Amino acid sequence: MGFSIKTYNQIAERGLARLAQQDILCVESLDRADAILLRSEKLHGVDFPPSVRAIARAGAGVNNIPVELCSARGIAVFNTPGANANAVKELVICSLLLSSRGILPGIQFAREQAVDDRAALHALMEKQKKQFAGNELFGKTLGIVGLGAIGSMVAEVALGLGMKVVGYDPALSVEAAWRLPNQVERMEGLNNLLSVSDYVTLHVPAIEATLNLINADNLPAFKPGAVLVNFAREAIVDYKAVLNALDSGPIRHYICDFPEPAFRNRQDVTAMPHIGASTQEAEENCAVMAAEQLADYLLNGNIKNAVNLPEVSMPRVPNTRRLTFINDNVAGVLGQVLSVLAEQSFNVVDMMNKSHGDVAYNIIDMEGDVPENIEFLIGQIEHVTSVRLI
Ligand SMILES: NC(=O)c1ccc[n+]([C@@H]2O[C@H](COP(=O)([O-])OP(=O)(O)OC[C@H]3O[C@@H](n4cnc5c(N)ncnc54)[C@H](O)[C@@H]3O)[C@@H](O)[C@H]2O)c1
Ligand SMILES: O=C(O)CC[C@@H](O)C(=O)O
């Protein structure tokens, strides 16, 4: 039986082609879809039909997906770590420059002057250009909050531009630490970072711990005249507190990817329409990675880059059927499943069992004629949340 995927948002053609190559259909309706592939569509409150076994975000953040509910229902949730990091890095560096010199107002000024005489126009520009002068990034301090895929790339370029870089990331993984340039000075607390940085850029996920991470309590800790850059998520910054801090200090500019009505006509806020990852390269990288991960999960039960399940991959053995199941990570479930298989006299040729927090995932390859009702039998076992016979 073929698989079908409900897609939301504009998914790059190269990613969709990977699905077509595997005979996986993209469908309009969620009703009988096996999986969902999306970018920023909000899935909170969506009633997933039982057919849905996996959701893939062509992007880094998964805050638009009800991950906890998916885990409880045995739905795998994938993302594409690092696939759009370069695009965001480039726009962050652009933002540092935009906030340092009168680039946007200067261009606007030049565009608006209706002076036909060339000499007069040139003279006007020379006279007025002092309004658009600014400062250099060289020698300034950049504070990076979140030193993962994007944070570490931003650090590297900023160091190349002659900036001093300080970082804060209490949850830094060993892998991310390896990627980080060793000139980045690690700060012990967020306020320490805020107090020494001329520019602060945020690269953390939107999770409970980062909600309003920048708020009325810590905004006074910023260096006078500092710039705040937010290409992470709107929920990480209390924007009302930021507007107060722009009005009465200490910060002088807020650059973000998340416009608010209250930002309209403010010269000290530069808000872009969530375009951090909007490059052809990033969109293709994300779509291809998400499509390949979904296809491997649907066709083979292998898991790569799931945020709620362990990394599991087992080569297929010819002439076997593969049973995969997800269960609450409690003792005895695998034993019960193996007993059911033994009662049916199936010969297990290979198997794998791994856990990730409260959830466990299993692959069992079996020889012989495995009837489809094995899914039903295994699904009856307490704590099993999802079963597939592939
Ligand atoms: N604007 C856009 O279009 C766009 C594009 C890509 C990513 N994003 C956002 O940026 C976020 C980061 O992306 P990434 O690819 O670098 O992710 P990543 O997972 O590689 O890095 C996130 C880092 O944040 C750290 N972190 C977690 N909690 C923290 C905390 N309380 N304080 C400091 N650090 C903390 C983690 O340890 C990790 O190192 C994503 O979750 C997403 O929300 C936005
Ligand atoms: O799809 C996009 O354009 C945005 C993706 C971005 O928000 C992410 O979390 O990776």
From TrEMBL:
Its EC number is 1.1.1.399, 1.1.1.95. One of its GO terms (molecular function) is NAD binding. Keywords: NAD, Oxidoreductase. InterPro entries: ACT-like_dom_sf (IPR045865), ACT_dom (IPR002912), D-isomer_2_OHA_DH_cat_dom (IPR006139), D-isomer_DH_CS1 (IPR029752), D-isomer_DH_NAD-bd (IPR006140), NAD(P)-bd_dom_sf (IPR036291). CDD domains: PGDH_like_3. The keyword Lipoprotein does not apply. The keyword Oxidoreductase applies. Residues 322-390 form the ACT domain. Pathway: Amino-acid biosynthesis; L-serine biosynthesis; L-serine from 3-phospho-D-glycerate: step 1/3. It is an enzyme of class 1 (oxidoreductase). It catalyses: (R)-2-hydroxyglutarate + NAD(+) = 2-oxoglutarate + NADH + H(+); (2R)-3-phosphoglycerate + NAD(+) = 3-phosphooxypyruvate + NADH + H(+). Catalyzes the reversible oxidation of 3-phospho-D-glycerate to 3-phosphonooxypyruvate, the first step of the phosphorylated L-serine biosynthesis pathway. Also catalyzes the reversible oxidation of 2-hydroxyglutarate to 2-oxoglutarate. Belongs to the D-isomer specific 2-hydroxyacid dehydrogenase family. This is D-3-phosphoglycerate dehydrogenase.
